[in-house]
Amino acid sequence: MLKLQKLTKTYKTGDQALKAVDLDVPSGQVLALIGPSGAGKSTLIRCINRLVEPTSGSVMLGDVDLTKLGAAALRRERRRMGMIFQEYALVERLTVMENVLSGRLGYVGFWRSLTRRYPQSDVDEAFRLLDRVGLVHMADKRADELSGGQRQRVGICRALIQNPALLLVDEPTASLDPKTSRQIMRLICELCAERGLAAIINIHDVALAQMFVQRVIGLRFGEIVYDGSPNGLTPDKLTEIYGEEDWEATIENVEGEEVEAAE
Question: Stretch 26-50: mean pLDDT, rounded?
Answer without folding.
Answer: 94
